[in-house]
Amino acid sequence: MANTPEVSVGPPDDLGWRKVTIDAKCTGKVRSPRELQRLLQDAGLMPGHPVHWLGGDRLFWPDKTARRRIIGSLTFIGFLLTAGLLLRIGWKDSQNALTFGERLAGYSVLAAAVVELIAALAALDYWHKRKRSYSGAIVLVGALIVFLCTSSLLLLQIDERFTRWSAIAISFLIGSILVGIDLIRSRAWKGLRNPRRIAIGAIVPTLIACINLAYTQLYVPNVTSPLIMSGAEFREASLDRAKAVMRVTVHTYVKNNGSIPVYILGSIYWVHGGPANDITQSKDPAYTLIYDGEFVTPVGRELDPGEEITQDTVIEIKDPERLNYEVLRAQTEVYSIRRDRMTLPPEYAQSRIYGKALEREGKWRPDEPGEVKYRDASKISNSSEILNIARGQQYIRVWRLLFGNWSRIEVAVSPPGDTITLDSSDPHYRQRLIDRYGLSLARGSMAQTPFKRLLEKALSPEKDSSTDQSDQSGQ
Q: Looking at the domain 228-457, which fold is it?
């Protein structure tokens, strides 16, 4: 009896492993009676050898193999898929994001993707043999990253259409919560030394860095609005008596006086003739539309800070001496959108479809009196890949609508194929475009000049030439 080895089987741990000692020396761990018999046979002990049971008898084997393997496999797959998505987002944003802050965020997403890959490997160890004491803590960090990523994606999809990404995000969010609860219950971090200090040392610097980045790269640009100035003025005038036409040069301009680059979606300028009263807009029916057109071409043109676009246009006024205009008035409107919020492709400038073609194709028409002169449209890309995923594919559509002696521009951004119904009296739709893409309307101040003075200016070269001719004849 003195030479009989003493075998002891300890209590089970969180994974159901029971430590086996022979003569007070650890021989291994087992999770079932079959594994115990195999271990004893390898140690040279015969079946039926007496065993001293600690923390449960020979029937107490709490390991649930199927459940453990299912949870471990699903967690591994979930971490791998999350890592793949984060790699895609991080790589695209680090290379192509429109702002410096979003590019930095792209590199942070790449780092999170690497952590997810490590967490996927740690999940195999944690739900299998748990050879690494820190594998549980890494899996918990991986579950936290999944939770933050999916909840952020769902928050970005508020007021958006429900897509396949929405369903994926919801399923992954629920999975990360369930895995997190299981890890917290089993105290996954207990294998670490001083886990509280490690957590504080990691969280505090990260939080400070995130706050600083959010303020300098996200808050400051967002509270800065574009400053686009536009206007028109009358310049030279000449008279062609043979054709009974007065030609007037109208100078129009738009300038970016702010610090944010923009795209010019569309521009309009009008020249009206009418009475000299205090009405500040030429929508008054007493005014006659002489000319209207665009002065920023091609549409979709970029306008950098400090850059100015000008155009001089010669308009013709027939039979000016028979008209009873008191003044000529000119005004401009420019619609722009922030270049740090979206990317407008070159196709936008070649996308114009005029009103009759739109009617033949059965495209949208405004639900009000008026005529659609043309429509420009193209797909757009958001400022970052995460926004592209959250919002899905988006199209921008810009219409120019005519209303007698006046016109206006309407802008819509929506998924492809959506039915567009615009209500100019609805401030919420336009406010969403302002908040999301920085849509801006720059309406120039009214330029006004007395019509008779302009006509006299046009006649003056003719008078000078006739005077010169009479002087020469007198000589």
A: Immunoglobulin-like (2.60.40)
